[in-house]
TrEMBL record:
<dbReference type="Pfam" id="PF13621">
    <property type="entry name" value="Cupin_8"/>
</dbReference>
<feature type="domain" description="JmjC">
    <location>
        <begin position="27"/>
        <end position="179"/>
    </location>
</feature>
<protein>
    <submittedName>
        <fullName>Transcription factor jumonji domain-containing protein</fullName>
    </submittedName>
</protein>
<dbReference type="InterPro" id="IPR041667">
    <property type="entry name" value="Cupin_8"/>
</dbReference>
<dbReference type="InterPro" id="IPR003347">
    <property type="entry name" value="JmjC_dom"/>
</dbReference>
Length: 274
């Protein structure tokens, strides 16, 4: 069965459950590249766009966009067909109100159903503020870096999104979003990771063999030690890398990395004194 046949026979049927998330178009559907223009600055950073397909009722739980290579991304989400509703949460206005998952690299994902919140477990969410935005075919939404968002597909929908870096939003991490970043780091420092998994994580960032025995116990006692490794800190300097294109700013990258390193050092010092 061809992909086109699958889409027309399954995706557009309301009682079918279909979800295709963030599939790189340049890799899987290069012919589609001729049907749209990649907006700047995504184009200058070599971003070609990602395809999304979802049946009616599909839900993407609340989260903000963060990857293992980039410390949060700005995004553009363009709906090609169908309708979606985005629920957007300004992170600076919702500090401490959206609980986070605690497993490795899931700190940017909420641990709450924003459509049916358990306020007994998470009473802070009662004070959360948000805006709902409905998108239809031809609409494009800008999702600022670090903004929480929940997505509900209300009719079978197709969309293309673009993630990119910008100096302006990175600068906000040192001003308006300073506490937001520190909340992110605090959640990372409180990570819950199985012993074997943590050993592999340390090996990846330390570029060494997995630690064992007492060496691994030190990381288990204070997981933030992983965050103090150079390769982990370098993630927060992504705006200085060549892949940031015209937005690259090595000075800003150095200031961001230094801020994160200072926070981690202070956290570890406080933890070790307890």
């Amino acid at each position: 069965m061809s992909f086109a046949t699958y889409v027309t026979s399954h995706w557009a049927v309301n009682d079918s459950s279909v979800y295709l998330a963030s599939l790189p178009i340049v890799k899987y559907f290069p012919a589609l590249m001729e049907t749209y223009v990649v907006p700047p600055p995504a184009a200058s950073q070599g971003k070609a766009g990602n395809l999304w397909l979802g049946s009616a009722g599909q839900i993407t739980p609340v989260h903000y966009d963060f990857s293992t290579r980039e410390p949060g991304m700005d995004g553009l989400h363009a709906v090609v067909a169908g309708t979606k509703i985005f629920r957007l949460f300004d992170p600076a206005a919702n500090l401490g109100r959206i609980p986070r998952r605690r497993s490795w690299w899931r700190w940017h994902q909420g641990a709450i159903d924003v459509l049916d919140p358990d306020l007994d477990t998470h009473p802070g969410f009662a004070e959360a503020a948000w805006d709902d935005v409905e998108l239809a075919a031809g609409d494009m939404l800008f999702i600022p870096k670090l903004w929480w968002h929940h997505v509900r597909t209300t009719t079978p929908a197709a969309a293309v999104n673009f993630w990119f870096q910008s100096r302006a939003s990175e600068e906000l991490k040192l001003t308006v979003h300073r506490l937001v970043m520190e909340e992110h780091l605090a959640s990372a420092a409180a990570m819950v990771v199985p012993r074997d998994r943590l050993a592999n994580i340390v090996a990846f960032y330390a570029k060494s063999a997995p630690p064992t025995g007492d060496a691994l116990d030190r990381y288990l006692a204070a997981p933030a030690r992983v965050m103090a490794l150079d390769a982990f800190l370098d993630i927060f300097a992504a705006i200085g890398a060549d892949r940031a294109g015209a937005e690259a700013d090595p000075d800003l990258a150095a200031r961001l990395r230094a801020h994160v390193a200072t926070w981690i050092d202070a956290h570890l010092s406080a933890h070790l004194l307890q």
